[in-house]
Amino acid sequence: MRLDKKEHIIEIAERVFGEVGYEGASTRYLATEAGVNIAMLNYYFGSKDGLLKAVLERRINTLRQALLAIKEKPISSWEKLTQAIDIYLDRVLANNCFHRLIQRELSLNQRPEIISTITEQVLNNIDAIRAIIQEGIDNGTFRPVDVEMTIASILGTKYYISNSTHISSRLLHMDLNDPDVLEAQLRPRIKHFILDYLQAYLLKK
């Protein structure tokens, strides 16, 4: 029962943090939305920082487990990479507000423990993608490229478009503040571009 209640609080907190940000999500508001009292919230997480840390760890860890499962599949390195990119973009674009929250925490650099959690968890996910690319290089499927810069290019494309919506909306001729546009137009366009880029860059002629 305790685990169920704790997971419920984390689930609600993820939505609240994504919608109103860290500053807008008071402990009282978080408790009210989760249908619990502040004492119970503090019992499980200690503080609002502790709750945010739990939210971050769960969301990012879930993505890592999915990436690691892809890495172990008996398929080609290119198929692994396309599936990894597909699931990565699906996860991060499905909750863009939450990922903006992550970027805001990183840029403000006000909560060292949260920064450390985000950094370590994200790097673990990056390692899973790095391993897939390196496997392709080792088995001769991919060209011997700079793996880290390749990953930075993938992440950079998504982060720039998501975090510079006013510029990106005009650049791409679509309203990136419209959730329907994000789902129906932006997500498939980013996927197509990144996979097309990686195919041209990585695969041997």
UniProtKB/TrEMBL annotation:
Keywords: DNA-binding. It holds the Pfam family TetR_C_29. Residues 3-63 form the HTH tetR-type domain. Residues 26-45 bind DNA. GO terms for molecular function: DNA binding. Transmembrane segments: none annotated. SUPFAM superfamilies: Homeodomain-like (SSF46689), Tetracyclin repressor-like, C-terminal domain (SSF48498). This is TetR/AcrR family transcriptional regulator.
